[in-house]
Design brief:
2 copies of one chain form a homodimer.
Chain A (H helix, E strand, L loop, with lengths): L1 H11 L3 H4 L28 E2 L5 E3 L3 H23 L4 H7 L13 H17 L3 H15 L23 H6 L2 H19 L3 H16 L14 H12 L2 H12 L8 H7 L15 H18 L2 H18 L30 H18 L2 H15 L10 E2 L5 E2 L15 E2 L7 H11 L5 E4 L2 E4 L5 E6 L5 E8 L6 E8 L3 E9 L6 E5 L2 E2 L8 E9 L3 E7 L4 E5 L9 E6 L2 E6 L13 E3 L8 E5 L6 E11 L9 E3 L8 E10 L11 E2 L2 E2 L6
Parallel strand pairs in A: 7-11
Antiparallel strand pairs in A: 1-6, 2-8, 3-5, 4-24, 6-7, 8-9, 9-10, 10-15, 11-14, 12-13, 12-15, 16-17, 17-18, 17-25, 18-23, 18-24, 19-21, 20-21, 21-23
């Protein structure tokens, strides 16, 4: 029935002449069983996601984060969106409310992203109060749709004449708006079956299809986002025109005469498959890569896969922070050159790390290759996780790897604080909310031959294998603090299938047992170990990962990290905050870690600190005379040997930085040479 | 007579009610004898400049640069200003020329800065063709002045209603425009005695004085510049109201409610003497500091001097590149935090280094302290000198200390080249032109007790001591390639005075002789050696500076330079360009300088290379396997030991980079540890 409705909407939108040219695919799975990205019938997907509602996340780091997300973050953000007048932007038009337009040109998307977060949250649990707010917001949105299908609260009145002009598309975010509208609509549809916003989005897409395309007017995504949304609309409705429109946009219409630096910056407007490296605005590049991967998953166009693989190598070998954060530059919120990874001036926008997770999720679906899951886990636990405070109401936009505690005032923060409740450009807060709300959907995949487990946490999956056999998988673990994961496998009936257990790439030693016996074959970090057998209800898999703290170094081409080390433990990157250190080391400007390979760490789990974290302590030296008292330049060999004293440094997980009073912070710590 | 004229203009401008409140000082020196900044009668100046025309610069580095400046740079730039329609902006208004407005809101200043460069050039020599162009330009400018005195080609027509509103002053550059108008006018007046533009500028200043000030409407310099120009207008006209207006603007009118990050960025709008550090837009900070120093020189307000000293310490100890360049960030073209000095991403705008030279020149005048001359020389020979190509027609806006050869496309350069003939924001080209044209004015100062020599080059000064005794000083030297400077002193009659000879701070060993005998007392680098005696015509002073190449290191707080050295020789910073290196080292990504203290350098002067430069060669190692083939992160101690091979690197002076085909460039070179 839902498909018939989509069909009707398409006709209503006036695209009837096109219908005969399009092929259709009926989604067999009902809305409530569709995954974060729904790859049923995607011919080039090796893995299928499981619905968000199929996984229950229990006590632990993510349980706590998700509880705060639903109880604090999501409700407080819609309140702020309302208070800042962004919802009134819709009421100005639908209800004639006499208020000035508020926010940036893409202010509509804050409501859409919030709706997406709410939609994912409602896929996990009934949330009647949230649902009421969401239904109201949806009503406000769809009420401004014009009969043509055009839907945008900014390009109205005097600005209506500028709609979708080449120069408007460069900066106006109309397609970006549509993309987030569709993503919000899809998540809400998969939560509730309510198609109201989905239909509105499809109608706007139909409006585009009518007038724009290769043999019509040129279209440009000044901020990529709509590409993946259109593919998901295709997956949801079966209407191939949406996939084709995504392909056209990704193909880059060269009729538009654009400035070269804009082609770099927007990561659009030139054929995606001609890209040679990650460059320009990092969120744009990630969203474009998501869309390109989605397009590959449906079409198998090998030019895309080849390009995506090159870009991915560029990401992990040259342009990714140890946190999984990306985007080295404040200027244009952009990628830098290869190995340009400044610490204090890292931009590492929360949204970009989320974009990386989304892209790697798609690459994982296309390939089943564990290296993508490694990037997902790294970004998730660190660069994304840091994006919201422990109490769920303060957000990071950028995520530096070193900080004086409070930065100078900047456009994101009048008082230079890294965490704030509101940003006029409100991309990151609802973005992290949708990520946490959809997180259950990232734990498992199914494949033709069985099940993949990607992430570890106390949790329970209730789903089915490809052949329809019911499957329940229960994880019991203290992960990420403890490296032992007990997994109980319960097929509805004894079944032959492969249980693919991810062994994270970060571990140096791992063991895997099935029912108390070592698993056959190599348990190699950075792979999925394929456990192929007849599974019976109650079979026990036990994964043990070496959680010893690790000292990590960078390729010497990263100039800022020469002579420095970072500390990792399990999937977590650690850092120093000044307030945890002895007085003499609190400025962090004069500390050096005593050389060693991790043997010197003392671990202590502190249940009352920052939601419960493992802290690490390590011997160190600190200069008695501060470096800040010395000149900036000097002749080689002329520097005095400065006396040091012994001290001990306390490391906390990176994701909890800046949750207490402002304090200096540092991820990459100078390593003491062989001097005492 | 000139003063009477100024008096008359003031009355015409309608400021008659103020006249009785102002004190006047008659400039005794005729226009042709006024210096770059004219400190006659400035009560807090220890040093007085000499007129540009009093110093003839002969053969050598600066002789060649100045010849190209007058013959190529200055003429080609006015042609480009004309071609880009910036002069038509004036004709639109005065002649009703039917053309669209062109360029940024401050496009007027490009003409003014060019007029300043032309004016300084005309102080050194007769240039009839240039004069004709300048007179035409001046006519175009003054023709648009309104009867009120308002003069600006942008805020006209519909925009006239927005003149000097608080929000306009934040971004509109009206006062910045006036500042450059006045600087151009003063330079042209001192070249020719022509007051046409000077009077127009004074009339615009009078317009401001009428309506703006502490007890009138608030005034804000959104881009400082007008402060120093108003003080110079005061020095030129004797009208104290201009000094008071500068003081009012520097004092920061807190009635304006400004965003904190704008107060940081603009370096204005809060009392200058409350500033604690250099921050925000580096050119703004430098120009504000120039104005504040000028204000101190006239008033002796100790709050300013104390602040200026703090800011200066911040500059040289924490925020200055080894080149003398400043401004670490592309984002906002701004200073960074202390020790934030990235190399490839250094902004180091040419204008900022020029601003630093101008500020240090004022600090030198206030104190006679050689440390300011050291900064002037460092900036001049390196960060400023690099700003224009050897052929005089290509300019750098930013001046990185490391480069892949060609950067990605950016707003300054569509093809990513660092040198370009034109920038839509054309601040740097005429700025370096005015600097080279005014350079003779920076060689010497006079004081109550004698003469100071600041810079070394083949040259001749013909001027007079404070008591009026004529003095001729002739320098013969191969500086900056050779460290020996022969100075002939010729007073008009035997005279007792002190000859202050600067011993640059960069030298490690210097000797000084008078008439073949060692000078009495210590010849300490970073000071002026005071040679007090009775000087007779033909007395010979000989300064010998050790020109051995030096390996320089940075305070370890500069993260990017850990384990790296830079090469200096004399006042010049050196660098590597890939195209000079053996094939295996041409990418520069895998080179390491062999450890040593400079003993390993071979020197060779190459007269035909880049206008004639001394190149330096030094043993080095290069990795056989490129670092780029290795992963981004790894465990400490797990990296393979990579084989290296011996090679030799060739260094060229930094100021000639990017004058040949694009090639990787590097100032800070990794130093090989004790390996092989």
């Amino acid at each position: 029935m839902t498909c018939l409705l989509a069909f009707a909407v398409t006709i209503l939108a006036g695209a009837s002449t096109l219908i005969t040219q399009t092929t259709r695919r009926q989604p067999a799975t009902p809305w409530r069983d569709q995954a974060v990205i729904h790859l049923e019938g995607s011919p080039y997907a090796k893995l299928q996601g499981v619905p968000v509602r199929a996984v229950r996340i229990d006590d632990g780091l993510w349980g706590a984060r998700r509880k705060v997300n639903v109880e604090k973050s999501i409700p407080s953000t819609i309140k702020l969106i309302e208070e800042h007048g962004y919802l009134d932007n819709f009421r100005r038009l639908s209800k004639g409310k006499n208020v000035p337009k508020k926010g940036p040109v893409f202010a509509d998307t804050d409501t859409y992203k919030w709706l997406e977060a709410a939609g994912f949250a409602m896929q996990s649990q009934d949330l009647p109060a949230l649902k009421a707010l969401a239904e109201d917001a949806i009503s406000e949105v769809v009420a401004i749709q014009e009969s043509s299908g055009y839907l945008n609260a900014h390009f109205v009145g005097d600005l209506a004449s500028r709609r979708l002009l080449p120069e408007t598309m460069e900066y106006g975010h109309e397609l970006y708006n549509l993309g987030h509208l569709l993503q919000g609509a899809v998540a809400y549809y998969r939560a509730t079956g309510n198609r109201k916003m989905l239909d509105a989005g499809a109608k706007m897409a139909d409006y585009l299809i009518r007038d724009f395309g290769a043999d019509k007017k040129p279209l440009l995504a000044g901020h990529p986002e709509v590409e993946m949304a259109l593919v998901e609309l295709y997956r949801t409705t079966g209407d191939r025109r949406y996939l084709d429109l995504a392909g056209y946009i990704l193909g880059g219409d060269k009729r538009l005469d654009r400035r070269p630096e804009r082609v770099v910056y927007t990561f659009s407007g030139t054929p995606f498959f001609e890209r040679k490296q990650l460059e320009g605005h990092s969120v744009r590049a990630m969203y474009a890569s998501c869309g390109a991967t989605d397009y590959y998953l449906e079409t198998g166009d090998s030019r895309y896969l080849k390009t995506l693989e090159n870009l991915w190598q560029d990401l992990v070998n040259r342009k990714m922070y140890i946190t999984g954060g990306i985007g080295s530059r404040w200027e244009a919120e952009a990628f830098g050159q290869a190995y340009e990874l400044p610490n204090a001036r890292s931009y590492a926008e929360t949204c970009a790390a989320i974009g990386s997770m989304m892209w790697n999720w798609r690459m994982l679906a296309a390939t089943g290759d564990a290296r993508y899951a490694d990037v997902i886990e790294r970004a998730l636990y660190n660069a994304i996780n840091v994006g919201v405070s422990v109490d769920g109401v303060l957000y990071c936009y950028r995520n530096p790897l070193e900080s004086p505690g409070i930065d100078e005032p900047n456009w994101q923060s009048k008082d230079g604080r890294v965490r704030n409740s509101w940003y006029d450009v409100l991309c990151c807060p609802p973005n992290i909310q949708r990520t946490l709300a959809s997180l259950p959907g990232y734990f498992y995949s199914t494949s033709k031959d069985g099940v993949y487990v990607h992430l570890f946490h106390n949790s329970e999956l209730s789903w089915k294998l490809a052949d329809g056999t019911a499957i329940r998988i229960t994880q019991k673990t203290g992960y990420p603090w403890d490296g032992e994961v007990s997994i109980r496998v319960e097929p509805g009936k004894p079944a032959d299938f492969t249980f693919h257990v991810r062994v994270p790439g970060w571990t140096t030693r791992a063991t895997l047992e099935v029912n108390g016996k070592p698993a056959a074959g190599e348990v190699r970090p950075g792979t999925y170990v394929a456990l192929r057998r007849t599974w019976h209800s109650g079979d026990a898999v036990r994964l043990k990962l070496d959680m010893s703290p690790r000292l990590v170094v960078t390729n010497p081409r990263v100039a800022e990290n020469t002579g420095r080390v970072a500390v990792e433990r399990g999937p977590l990157v650690y850092c120093l905050e000044g307030l945890d250190q002895p007085r003499e080391a609190g400025s962090l400007s004069d500390v050096m870690l005593a050389a060693g390979k991790g043997a010197g760490f003392r671990e202590e789990f502190k249940p009352d600190l920052l939601g419960g974290v493992m802290v690490l302590r390590h011997p160190a030296f600190v200069y008695t005379n501060s470096l800040t008292s010395e000149p900036l330049y000097g002749l080689l060999g002329s520097q005095p040997r400065r006396p040091t004293q012994r001290t001990e440094l306390t490391f906390i997980p990176y994701y909890v930085v800046a949750n207490r009073e402002p304090s200096p912070m540092m991820v990459w710590i100078p390593l003491a040479q062989s001097t005492r």
